[in-house]
Automatic annotation (TrEMBL):
<dbReference type="Pfam" id="PF00545">
    <property type="entry name" value="Ribonuclease"/>
</dbReference>
<dbReference type="GO" id="GO:0003723">
    <property type="term" value="F:RNA binding"/>
</dbReference>
<keyword id="KW-0732">Signal</keyword>
<feature type="region of interest" description="Disordered">
    <location>
        <begin position="22"/>
        <end position="51"/>
    </location>
</feature>
<dbReference type="GO" id="GO:0016787">
    <property type="term" value="F:hydrolase activity"/>
</dbReference>
<dbReference type="InterPro" id="IPR000026">
    <property type="entry name" value="N1-like"/>
</dbReference>
<dbReference type="InterPro" id="IPR016191">
    <property type="entry name" value="Ribonuclease/ribotoxin"/>
</dbReference>
<feature type="signal peptide">
    <location>
        <begin position="1"/>
        <end position="20"/>
    </location>
</feature>
<keyword id="KW-0540">Nuclease</keyword>
<protein>
    <submittedName>
        <fullName>Uncharacterized protein</fullName>
    </submittedName>
</protein>
<dbReference type="GO" id="GO:0004521">
    <property type="term" value="F:RNA endonuclease activity"/>
</dbReference>
<keyword id="KW-0378">Hydrolase</keyword>
C-alpha cells in the first residue's frame, strides 16, 4: 500500500515536464491559424485570415491595395455604418467595395469595408455580420 501511495504522490512530478513548454520539442514556428496576430482594431470581433476569404474577396482586396480600377460605380463610396456593427467612427472613415457574387444579377450581398487606418472587414450577408480580415 505504501508503494502505491508513493507512486501516486510522484506521478504529477513525472508528468509535469511533458505539460510544460520546456518539455516540448521545438517545431520551428507556429502552424495554426491562431498564429496570425490580431490587430487592436479587431479585438473582440470574429476574424478571418485573408487566405480564407472567397477568391473574389481576395481579388477585391488586391484592387483596393492597388487603388483600382474598380468594376462597380459605387466602389470606394462612403460606408455609413448605419447598422452600428463596426466600431463607431466619424462619417467618411469607412468605405465600401463590392465583392462579386457568382450568379448574382446585381452587386450581390458581399462587401469589403475599409477603414482609414488600413482596417479591412468582410461581410457576406450585406452588413448583417462582419469579420475583421487579418493578414500575416
Amino acid at each position: 500500500m505504501r508503494a502505491l501511495t508513493a507512486l501516486l504522490a510522484t506521478l504529477p512530478l513525472l508528468l509535469l515536464p511533458a505539460c510544460s513548454s520546456e518539455g516540448k520539442k521545438s517545431g520551428g514556428g507556429a502552424t495554426s491559424a491562431a498564429a496570425t496576430p490580431v490587430p487592436s482594431w479587431a479585438k473582440g470581433m470574429k476574424t478571418v485570415p485573408r487566405d480564407r476569404l472567397p477568391a473574389e474577396a481576395r481579388k477585391t482586396l488586391d484592387l483596393i491595395d492597388k487603388g483600382g480600377p474598380f468594376p462597380y460605380e459605387k466602389d470606394g463610396t462612403v460606408f455609413g455604418n448605419y447598422e452600428n456593427r463596426l466600431p463607431k467612427q466619424t462619417r467618411g472613415y469607412y468605405h465600401e467595395y463590392t465583392v462579386p457574387t457568382p450568379g448574382a444579377r446585381n452587386r450581390g450581398a458581399r462587401r469589403i469595408i475599409t477603414g482609414t487606418h488600413a482596417e479591412r472587414y468582410y461581410t457576406g450577408d450585406h452588413y448583417e455580420t462582419f469579420e475583421a480580415v487579418v493578414q500575416p
